[in-house]
Amino acid sequence: MFYKLQTDEEVECIPGQPITNPEKLVNAPIMLGAVQETRSFRVGEAVTLTIGDFGEIVMNCNLCGDDLVAKLPVLSPPVPPI
Question: What pTM value is reported for the model?
Answer without folding.
Answer: 0.50
